[in-house]
Predict the structure.
Amino acid sequence: MFVIWLTGPSGAGKTTLAKALADRFEKMGYRVEVLDGDGIRSKLYPDLGFSRKEREMHNRVIVEMAKLLSKNGVITIVSVIAPYREWREYARREIGKFVEVYLRCPLEVRIKRDPKGLYEKALKGELKGLTGFNGEYEEPENPELILDTDKMTVEEEVKAVMEKVIELGLLSPRATSEE
């Protein structure tokens, strides 16, 4: 099948969109798996830090998992910050059928959402190097899709992704029919 790679800073809406997409694909009868960066990190290597080298290792693991799943007929939705372009380009090369979706969201909205309390800690100085706040996040240069998550509903985001995978020839047009 293919991989939908959701990228953006913390609080941009990656996990929410990943779950909504998975639900939609499952209702359509597809095999689907969500690879959530935080979930994989907490289960496989909870003591792994956030240095560039450690983040790269984490991303390589996710790429290999996504590649194997998609190769075996599973629509794979990756929800991970992946802050560096070179890693996302590595994922694209390794996986092949790859749809990069950049979830763009202004900092002030991400701070208000703050699902994990990370921005609160960063604002207090308790957390250094938060990606997209006081840590680096390289915006994608040529993603297949950009979603402004502060201006769209989750349903609109799902529709946009579905339309993109059809446009790219990864699914037949029946994918946009309402279930």
